[in-house]
Amino acid sequence: MKRTIFNNKLLPWLLLAPQLAITFVFFLWPAAQAIRQSFLRQDAFGTRTTFVGVENFRRLLNSPEYLNSLQVTAIFAISVTILSMGLALLLAVAVDRMIKAQRVYTTLLVWPYAVAPAVAGILWWFIFNPTIGIIPYMLAQVGYNWNHVGNPAEAMTLVVIASAWKQISYNFLFFLAGLQAIPASLREAAAIDGAGPVRRFFDITIPLLSPTTFFLLVVNIVYAMFDTFAVIDTTTRGGPAQGTNILVYKVYFDGFVGQNMGSSAAQSVFLMLIVITLTVIQFRYIEKKVAY
C-alpha cells in the first residue's frame, strides 16, 4: 500500500477549518456566552446589566422549584433510558432470531426514528388526550379515568412513553448489530453443553453486548436530558404543578418566557456540568465492567 505524505502543514488545518468554524460558532461561543451571562443580572427591559457573581447559582441551589426540577429530570431520564433500551433489546432479540422477513421488520421498526420530536409529542398527545384519545377511552372501559392535564404522575407517564418511543428505533439498530456480531458458534457450544435460552442470553449475549449497551447508556441519558425539549413543549409544557418541568425546559421557560436571562444561563451551566459529570462517571467506573 502506497503512503501519501502532504508536506504542506497548513493543508490539514484548511481541511478542518469548516468543522472547526461550526464547532466554534454553534458550540463553543454559545457555551462561553452562557457562562458569562450566568454571572450577570438584567432588568425587566434588558437595558441594564449588573454583575452579581455567583448570586444566580446560589439562588438556584436554594430554590424549591429548581430542586424539584432536578428530581423530575432524574426520574424522567432514568425512566426513558430503561424503557427505550429495554424494549429495543427485546425487539432486537426477536428480529435477530428471524430468518425470513428480517429486513422488513427492521425497516418498519426504524421508521419512528425519522419522526421529529415535536411530531412525536403531538402524536402521543392525541393518543392520550382525555377527550378524544384512544388510550383514555380504553382505560375508561375498565373504570380508570385518565387525565394527564391534572395528574403529574400521568403526565410523566405520557412524556416518558413519547420520548422512549422516539428513541427505541435508534437503540434497536445498535442492539441488532451487536447481536449479529456475536459468533453463532458460542451459542451453539453453550446449547450443546445444556444451557437453555435464558442461560445463554444472560451468560453469553448480555456480556458480549456490554460495549453496545455502555455506548447506548451514555447516548440515551444525554438524549433524555437535552433532546426531549420538543416532546415536553408539545405535550405538557412542564405541567401540571411542575410535574414534568425537566431542566432543559426550565432553562427555556425562565429565559425566554420569564425573561430571567441570568438565572436561565446559570441553569444551562448547571445542566452542562451535570451531563459532563455523568459522562465522566460512566466512562470512569461503568466502562471498567465492559468486556470488549
TrEMBL record:
Membrane topology: Multi-pass membrane protein
Protein's GO biological process: transmembrane transport
GO CC annotation, single: plasma membrane
Pfam family, one: BPD_transp_1
Domain of life: Bacteria
Cross-referenced InterPro entries: MetI-like (IPR000515), MetI-like_sf (IPR035906), UgpAE/MalFG_permease (IPR050809)
The keyword Transmembrane helix appears for this protein: yes
Keywords from the UniProt entry: Cell inner membrane, Cell membrane, Membrane, Transmembrane, Transmembrane helix, Transport
Family named by the database record: Belongs to the binding-protein-dependent transport system permease family.
The protein's name in its UniProt record: sn-glycerol-3-phosphate transport system permease protein UgpA
Species in which this protein is naturally found: Paracoccus tibetensis
Organismal lineage: Bacteria, Pseudomonadati, Pseudomonadota, Alphaproteobacteria, Rhodobacterales
